[in-house]
Amino acid sequence: MTFEEAKRIAGEKVNIRIKTEGRLSGVIAVVTGGAQGFGAGIAKSLYDEGACILIADLAVQKETAEKLIAEQLGENAAFCPCNVADEEEVKAMVSFCVERFGGLDLFVSNAGIARAGDLETMDAKTFELISKINYEGFFLCAKYASEIMKAQFAANPDKWSDIVQINSKSGIVGSKANFAYSSSKFAGIGLTQSFALELAPYQIKVNAVCPGNFYDGPLWSDPEKGLFVQYLKAGKVPGAKTVEDVKKFYLSKQPISTRGCFPSDVAKAVMYCVEQCFETGQAIPVTGGQVMLA
């Protein structure tokens, strides 16, 4: 299906949705980076509340995504390979969502990468890669998701849609020896606010959810590439000798310090964005109190 065909079909089927039980009954959602970590947890929470879910992730995650669908989701979920930094793959993914489910109501832009490093050790190639995925990838996803949502609004002026970027607390406050990631997330909030202004006339709300640290996920806990290991090697935590020292340091920063952020916490914020029809352009922290807005 071409992208132009997808826009036409989305308009034609805007009032036809699969009815299920839950807060998100009839909602068609995409979750990028949805095969593992935060993305998988968000996808499951949204699915459990009745949404149809398209998991978009790199082709190498196909087996992981299909296992997630088979064991935890079900027939109203599907997988589509997609590199969010590739414009043609993003267009194809959005078109596939319309082909599979008939439209697109909620786009959760979750895919992202983090590479720690200070000014001395960070190289330009890594900095560019982080920006391309975390910043440009969000732009591409919002660009093509919003085209489908606009077509649905044109066919039904009562229609509301949502784009939610999974940002980070590092998009609200700077992060020592992690400036490449932090700056890409600050930029993401700039896009969120700007897209919110542009898309409001089409009843497309655009918000960001800024999670705290999901210590149990691969982003932090991967034994080779996880942030615990990266931060230990980068000397981000003064005096830390082990990964456990790094974890204790970060937990101590949170008023609610018994655990890190869970995907279910983030999914609740996403659902708030969907259900609240008078909220757009916001960056919502889910950080256990580590980051508080004035």
Structure summary:
With about 290 residues, this protein is α/β, with parallel strands linked by helices.
Question: What's the arrangement of secondary structure elements?
Answer:
Elements: H1 3-12, E1 28-32, H2 37-48, E2 52-57, H3 62-72, E3 77-81, H4 87-101, E4 106-109, H5 124-155, E5 161-166, H6 179-199, E6 204-211, H7 218-221, H8 227-234, H9 243-251, H10 263-275, E7 283-286
Parallel strand pairs: 1-2, 1-4, 2-3, 4-5, 5-6, 6-7
Molecular structure report:
The protein is built from ten helices and seven strands. The protein has helices at 3-12, 37-48, 62-72, 87-101, 124-155, 179-199, 218-221, 227-234, 243-251, 263-275; strands at residues 28-32, 52-57, 77-81, 106-109, 161-166, 204-211, 283-286. The mean pLDDT is 95.
CATH topology of the largest domain: Rossmann fold
What is the CATH top level name of the largest domain?
A: Alpha Beta
Give the termini distance in whole angstroms: 47 Å
- CATH superfamily (homologous) name of the largest domain: NAD(P)-binding Rossmann-like Domain
**Any idea how many domains?**
2
Identify the CATH architecture of the largest domain. 3-Layer(aba) Sandwich
Rg, nearest Å = 19 Å
Helix content: 40-55%
Strand order of the largest sheet: 3-2-1-4-5-6-7
